[in-house]
Amino acid sequence: MAYLDDESFLLHSPTARRLFHEVAKDQPIYDYHCHLSPKEIATNHRWENLADIWLGGDHYKWRLLRANGVDEEYITGAASPREKFQAWAETVPYTLRNPIHHWTHLELRRYFGIDTLLSPATADEIWDKANSRLAEPDFCVHGILEKFRVTMVGTTDDPADPLDHHETIAFSPLRTKVLPTFRPDKAFAVDQPKAFNAWIEKLEEITDTSIHHVSDLLQALQKRHDDFHAAGCRLSDHGLERCPALPCDDADASIIFDKARRGLPVTAEEKEKFTFFLMVFFGQQDAAKGWTKQLHLGPFRNVNPRMFDLLGPDAGFDTIGDERQGAALITYLGTLAQQGSLPQVILYNINPRDNYLFAAMTGAFQDGTVAGKIQFGSGWWFLDQKDGMELQLNALSSTGLLSRFVGMLTDSRSFLSFPRHEYFRRILCNLIGSEADRGELPDDFEALSKLVADVCSGNASRYFRF
């Protein structure tokens, strides 16, 4: 069998192939959580060369370059784009069995029409062909979104960020809906008073208010929540090592807030209490507006202090965490449920140890008001690959309803990541189709097709009310 054969790649049975090619392949994409730049979408950005679009900001590739012994000069340093691409071409042959080998060559095929394997020997040819394609009129942000039938993109936005790029996009001819996602994690940083107060100043400016008390902070955040809703936002998101679990009343929150505003030290216990206070507030606001709350739980971030000092965050120096998730998550979700203010929630874990914990947790908080109200989210970050996706699909299927799953997202900063939806769809179709051909699922193509179509796009459209 040929490598990445379009007909059968990852599809190991006749029904799997039929499901993908007849049902899944051309479903629209709802990329409801990503880190694409609203500015680049608003300006219909174009790229100067292959290194610019392919290697800039992609910490997945940066990690493998470092693992292959490539000097930082050729990763995030001052080397030329062609030199950085050459370093990547020299690394790719060593990525066999890493999902990056699949993604690299899917991207070359789907975006550039190149089916040559990348290596030092083919680097010149691929560089020239890809750069020639980049110069064509349709190779721009809007062209990519059209080509891949992207119906919706959910960017990730801080409450203190302006929404002017989203306004520009809304009045552009782009048919893809591009909606902000409310990500207020900087509000929790009371243990870093300098950064916290700088963020408060930005929030004051964007809301045209003064924030002297914790009640002022809640009012400013409420205003931004309202502004985001008016801009089409229907999701929030939080990235945490684990949910906070220490209850906090107004008086305690006020004391902690005042300490941070005065630049005084805040303990780890006080930070957790303040985070719990705000997370309950955010949950109440999300529930009131019918939003979906996403909880990305578990990573240890910026674990290499030397490289953090050199390059800052999001540079490829994060890892899978081993925090205990269950009790804290129960405390948080239970608090909201007790108040009658539990919104739709999607839980994402980064440690595969927690697959069944999270999958089973969703069943404990379903309330019959919305099909699949509490979701076990797609394999995330280090689990965003074949094995991780299969583990997530199997845990969800074994403990809940796969048929109500809202499906795949890229969680990416790159406009070249949309083939990851194809990758997921092939894995999904192989799972369903192969079990049907073994007699483990009914021989009912119509029923199987509905399951596949719903997971690929239909459930997301209904669940998020787009």
TrEMBL record:
Source lineage: Bacteria, Pseudomonadati, Verrucomicrobiota, Verrucomicrobiia, Verrucomicrobiales
Source organism: Luteolibacter arcticus
Entry keyword annotation includes Isomerase: yes
SUPFAM superfamilies xref list: Metallo-dependent hydrolases
Keyword terms of this UniProt record: Isomerase
Stored Pfam families: UxaC
Ranges in a coiled coil: none
Xref: InterPro entries: Metal_Hydrolase, Uronate_isomerase
Catalytic activity: aldehydo-D-galacturonate = keto-D-tagaturonate; D-glucuronate = D-fructuronate
Similarity annotation: Belongs to the metallo-dependent hydrolases superfamily. Uronate isomerase family.
Protein name listed in UniProt: Uronate isomerase
EC nos: 5.3.1.12
Enzyme class: isomerase
GO molecular function, one term: glucuronate isomerase activity
Pathway: Carbohydrate metabolism; pentose and glucuronate interconversion
Superkingdom, natural source: Bacteria
